[in-house]
Amino acid sequence: MTDEAGTLRLAFDEGTVRITGPGSVVADLPGTEYDERSESWRAPAHRYADLRDALAEHDGAVDDAVLAERELPDLTTAYELRDYQQDALDAWREADCRGVLELPTGSGKTVVAIAAIAARSAPTLVVVPTIDLLDQWERELAAEFDVPIGRLGGGEQRVEDITVSTYDSAYLRADELGGDFELVVFDEVHHLGGEGYRDIARLLAAPARMGLTATFERPDGAHEVIEELVGPVVHRLSAEDLAGDHLADFDIKRVAVELTEDERERYDEYQGTFTDYLAQSGIQLRSGSDYQELVKRSGNDPRAREALLAKQRAREVMMNAENKVRELERVLDHHREDRVIVFTAYTDLVYRLSERFLMPAITHETAAAERREILERFRAGDHSRVVTANVLDEGVDVPDANVAVVLSGSGSEREFTQRLGRVLRPKADGGRATLYELVTEETAEERVARRRR
After folding, report:
1. Do 329 and 199 share a structural domain?
2. Does 306 lie in the same domain as 339?
3. Which of 37, 65, 93 represents a domain boundary (last residue)?
4. Do 22 and 115 sit in the same domain of this protein?
5. pLDDT in tens, 210-267
6. 91 and 122: one domain?
7. How far apart are CA 13 and CA 131, in angstroms?
């Protein structure tokens, strides 16, 4: 044991680990820099696990007060993990309790996380992107564990040893609460790649970190930042891996539709305006950043603004093609005895379809209480079909359905995977799930469809 002056002291301080002690020792610790203002050394809070590993080799005395000293009772869960869920949990634990689990929608990622929380029985923060998920996680945690459950978001700011928070609330309070939790679970961890949200993981000291997602990689490359802050993908399964045994077998049917003569004329005119501007300006769109440059140019270039507006109008024509509606009518007639979810990219089309086919509609304009009522009636069988614009892609507990129809969407693989996942829960009768993808021929939508697949 060294004397008092030779003791290394670690404390959490506003999103950092503050370290005092022999400078020659501290300077060699990972991530540390000297802070003249406080006359101490500091490291980003997310490097705390690295600091602990390095100090395990230190011969002198260490006073580690980074994490609040709180003991939880041993937590237990009634869930019995399926083989693949246990494999995922084991892989995470073998990776020193850090890393991302990539499992398809409907496979029970929440169950794996709850098992991890029970195994550690330590203060835990669960971070989620939506109020719906906040509600779901709070209910799930309260049902499983006989301890108070904290909540940050949706008008409440209540911190407990087990707390669930929205990303927004965690962002606002991470520098304050970063020393309160030993484990942090990031649900839909791909959201952590956003510029502001990254600070949540940077400001938390939690040495144990778990990310949950159905599709980890982001087209902007931000998943590499997430790997630094949470850990790499330590276990990955696709819907195909689990189909038949743990998820429903499924078919994906791509249906090509033609534009009407009037739609073709308008589409070609709008698309021509856009491509002509690119050719005359020497602009090549090879990445998202190239498109962002075009958007910036439109701020002071009327022709660029006209071209972007024409591109938007061309997209609306191809995405909302009348023959898609006619094809949807055939699909709905064929699946009269099934539970169907129809996905579109446009709110206006949702209401048109709702009125035409007498389907309840869910959009961002639908109040939370009304949405819950619609989904409950869908679950009970009072409704057999529902139409939505993006709202049910993520963060909503959607009742079992066995048919999905994608009328329009983005080129995002994540969006497509989440929509497919809405019909993959195992069927009592062992039946197959079906996803219809309606694509307008000889338009840019064909490239969009290839990209998301």
Report:
1. no
2. no
3. 65
4. no
5. 999 988 776 666 778 889 999 999 999 887 887 766 666 778 888 999 999 999 999 9
6. yes
7. 29
pLDDT tens per residue, range 288-308:
666 777 777 787 888 888 988
Q: What is the residue range of 283's domain?
A: 261-318
User: Do 22 and 148 reside in the same domain of the chain?
Assistant: no
User: Is 352 within a domain?
Assistant: yes
- What domain count does the chain have? 4
Which residue reads 């993981």 in tokens? 201
Same domain, 274 and 188: no
Is the pTM higher than 0.90? The answer reads: no
CATH number at residue 144: 3.40.50.300
